[in-house]
UniProtKB/TrEMBL annotation:
Organism, scientific name: Lophiostoma macrostomum CBS 122681
Residue ranges of the region described as Disordered: 81-159
Segments passing through the bilayer: 240-258
The keyword Nucleotidyltransferase belongs to this UniProt entry's keyword annotation: no
Primary site of residence: membrane
Classification of source organism: Eukaryota, Fungi, Dikarya, Ascomycota, Pezizomycotina
Cell location: Endomembrane system
Alphabetical list of SUPFAM superfamilies matching this protein: SNARE fusion complex (SSF58038)
GO molecular function terms noted in the UniProt entry: SNAP receptor activity; SNARE binding
Protein's name in the database: t-SNARE coiled-coil homology domain-containing protein
Keywords: Coiled coil, Membrane, Protein transport, Transmembrane, Transmembrane helix, Transport
Amino acid sequence: MSTTNPPQLFLLADHIKLSLLERQRALSLNLPSNSQDVQISRSLDSLRSGIESLESQVADNADDSITSQLPRLRHQLSDLTAQFTSSSSTPTSPTLTSPNNPALSSDFASAQKKPRPVSKSVRFTDNPPTSSSPDPARQQLFPYRDDPSSDADAPDQSSLDNQQIHEYHSQVIRDQDEQLDRLGESIGRQRELSMQIGDELDGQVLLLDDVEEGVDRHQAQFNRARSRLERFSRKARDNWSLTVIVVLIVILVLLIVITK
């Protein structure tokens, strides 16, 4: 007996797509994404189980409305599984960027916005340019470099003053704050969508419980009717010989009467 229906599975597929898009955004920002992997894996397992349940239902009782949706569900499951196992931070399948429910188009558009690239070069050097009047504050800005063993790769800071360096790093921080704000909004939408899916699943469970109870009642009635038919059949077989004898006696009596 099926535990889901196609609309519910398409909604679950949209939830997985949004989770994968958020995961890719985290990867593009070099943020940890392991916290989402477990939930995405469970959602993929639920989608796979739902499709198998629908296939079992169609095998028992043909339903064109379900059969027509199964190829699309299988295709989306395959694409989403491939995207999840891939370490790429960009979508590899158009399925991931296309929602099944048009109402989620705005969420998908927000989740697909590319974060602004942030330069990771460190604008510091151990050897600031010397001048007749060195700036002590500027000298304190360059105590660090990424690769102490390579002096030739140190960036040239001679063209930047303290104010420009401060403005540059302030802009980097603002960009990162903006990206984190967008990521927080996307996570909030994911939470709302997860709550809606949970409510839908709870309602489906109640309906399935009612259906299961009805099936059990009908099965019990069917078993009682079959038992009565079996008893009647056995009695008919037992009385068959007696019926044949009575018919032969009637025929013999009629023949005697006719011959006289």
